[in-house]
Amino acid sequence: MTEDLEARLRADLDARGDRTDELIRTTATAADHEGLVDVAVAVLDTPVGPVLAATTARGLAMLQYVRDGDVEGPLEELARRVSPRILELPERLSPVEHQLRAYFAGERRTFDLAVDWELVGSGFARRVLQATARIPYGQVRTYTDVAGEAGNPRATRATGNALGANPVPIVVPCHRVVRMGGGLGGYSGGLDVKERLLALEGARMM
Amino acid sequence: MSLPPFQTFLVAHADRIHRLLVAVAGRQEAGDAFQETFLAALRAYPDLPPNTDLGAWIATIAARKGIDVHRRRARHAIPVAEPPERAVEAHEPADAALWEEVRRLPTKQRLAVAGRFGADLSYDHLARVLDCSPAAARRSVHEGLTKLRRRIAVRTEGAR
Fold first, then answer.
1. What ipTM goes with this model?
2. C-beta neighbour count of A88 within 10 angstroms
3. Sign, Cα dihedral of A185, A189, A190, A191
């Protein structure tokens, strides 16, 4: 008799998974309306694979290539370095999604998006990425060029590191920075992706 | 150990908390209570002490919100005559009717049964929600079950 009652109590309470998913979504939207969301995130599909996009009140803070379906890593970095008040809100990322789609369709050459430089830090790394942001569509620069723009033409290794740590690739176009003499260099999203982006833009290698 | 991203925390606890709220406040009110619970949690989230037991914390908020929402509905309920027992099977009450009985238990026993069987709370977590010792939490569950059994027996008697 005891087991009967306890078993019945444990049985499904009509709190089905799909209804819970809907509640999660409506709760996130309500939180956003109350101004409680510091970081809005969404995974966006692109021709170069899924990217985790994160935006704050200041702008796009992250656009990270998702490897092996791991979104927890980037989310934890955001929680640690920006704020733990993170919620999935695709509607907040729709301008980013639209512009990326237009970029990959060859219809857009510059991004009309504010960038949140919080994850970049200050100093040399920020100057590197700001210089990178000025490289026009379809052109390339060398690591030495960018190092010079950032204030220290000999600091090519630090430049490479700053580019490798770029939290907003594609929009801050670190794919346009290549080796003097024609080598591709490096790319956090993989060299195949770097090649693809350069080919899309019709960039000629030096 | 720093706080997990709220999205991760929300997804990890959503099902259990939803079940707890359906148990405490009923299916109709559980949605509102769910939202209130997690918005309250989100407000307090960044200020939580480092080693907070997040599972116990959110269950405590949910229990409180569930009771609040249930009370609000009860205050606004229009009194009607007790509906006939036609819907109840002679020997096997439907689960919805069973949880209705749970919601008629005194608050402490209701939370104990809902927490234990709706949200699978350990007695330690249940103790935090009820603000008592684990032994007292165990007793509340037992008392709640005893009362439930008695009331169900009365209902099935009446239906014969």
1. 0.91
2. 21
3. negative
Q: Can you read off the two tokens belonging to residue A163?
A: 């580019």
Measured between beta carbons, which residues in chain A are less than 8 angstroms from residue B102?
A: 9
pLDDT, tens only, B20-63: 998 899 888 999 999 999 999 999 999 999 889 999 999 999 99
Q: Global pTM?
A: 0.87
Position A59, amino acid: G
Among this protein's residues, is A200 annotated catalytic? no
User: Using the beta-carbon criterion (under 8 Å), do B22 and A14 form an inter-chain contact?
Assistant: yes
pLDDT tens track for B68-103: 988 887 777 666 655 554 444 333 335 677 888 898
Is A4 an 8 Å CB contact of chain B? no
Residue B50 has a pLDDT of 80
Residue B2 at interface with chain A, using a CB cutoff of 8 Å: yes
Cβ contacts below 8 Å, chain A against chain B, sum to 102
Question: How far is A163 from A159, CA to CA, in rounded Å?
Answer: 6
Q: Is A5 on the interface with B (CB under 8 A)?
A: yes
On average, the pLDDT of chain B sits at 85
DSSP state, residue A84: S
